[in-house]
Amino acid sequence: MDFELSPEDAAFRDEVRQWLxxxxxxxxxxxxxxxxxGTDAFEAHRAWEKTLxxxxxxxxxxxxxxxxxxxxxxxxxxxxxxxxxxGAPERINRLGLGLLGPTLMxxxxxxxxxxxxxxxxxxxEIWCQGFSEPGAGSDxxxxxxxxxxxxxxxxxxxxKVWTSFGAYSDWIFLMVRTNPEAPKHQGITFILVNMKTPGxxxxxxxxxxxxxxxxETFFTxxxxxxxxxxxxxxxxxxxxxxxxxxxxxxxxxxxxxxxKIWQQVVDQSRxxxxxxxxxxxxxxxxxxxxxxxxxxxxxxxxxxxVLTKLxxxxxxxxxxxxxxLYWSEMETRLYELGNDVLGPKAELFKGADDAEEGGQWNADxxxxxxxxxxxxxxxxxxxxxxxxxxxxxxxx
Length: 396
Hints:
Elements: H1 7-22, H2 24-31, H3 39-54, H4 73-85, H5 94-107, H6 110-121, E1 127-130, E2 146-150, E3 153-160, E4 171-177, E5 188-194, E6 200-204, E7 215-225, H7 236-248, H8 254-271, E8 273-274, E9 277-278, H9 283-311, H10 319-342, H11 360-368, H12 378-388
Parallel strand pairs: 1-4
Antiparallel strand pairs: 2-3, 3-7, 4-5, 6-7, 8-9
């Protein structure tokens, strides 16, 4: 790949930088309110999303017909990179932007696209994901939430768990069993459900890091129009695998985030005391810092390779699993190194004196463990790589 920006792309990057600089005050104000701190804080982040949409930055590579900018995939990566470098707020509608939107562009009807896509970009519809169940996580095809046809509606009953942003969401994209007689991968349907529909109940789950963004979601005789089915009835597994491919992602723009974590660890090692000196004096710390630099650089270069493939119009195969396995385990190692450098201070929660980043470091460290579970566990990714890349047989 040519690492030199074309004049057009350089101008695009500079435009992004200037726009973000012009909105520095709103960025800082929004960042003061962590979106999990309550409804008012969440609404501050929704207002920021509206500002992005009005500026034409909510969906850079989305088609203009659906409210996007129609930019190239490379320009989308440039925007994501500059957004991260500016420390701009985390995107609260990332499940709509990263999963539901791209899935509808592939499988949705024109009516579904017109009904939802521009509202996703404007953050008028916040979306959550209804895949996992108490008895169906990695073995997702074992899901038991059922939908029974009744005229022009489906009647849905069941339970989902780990519904991120469920308490704040307007809509959920849901996997339901519509044909219990079919093989378990073939009797599943992908359907869109309004969270305000009678019979939908959301119960937040308090996590180890204090956050309550995960939820349980219960469906009791919830009536949903058949028109809300994405693609075909009983063909939801195929749709969901496409969605999971988007979730595991190409890694576009994310190298910046991991580089920033690595730099934080470097800064910590240079100031934290150890044995009469600083942590950076410890040969093992220096070795692990060097390893972190190598890993983040490898990930950055691999992301460029994936971007090149996509820019040529080629489709991703198991690269999504390779990328997801790599970055999730790398992230965990970086946070573990930071914790070792910080020592007891790393365990301080929000509000404690001397807590790193006001306690946000501890919360992020604890949440980083989840990255090896969501979007498919590391074990699932290894199975995919073993079977589809290495050609190894399934266990008999």
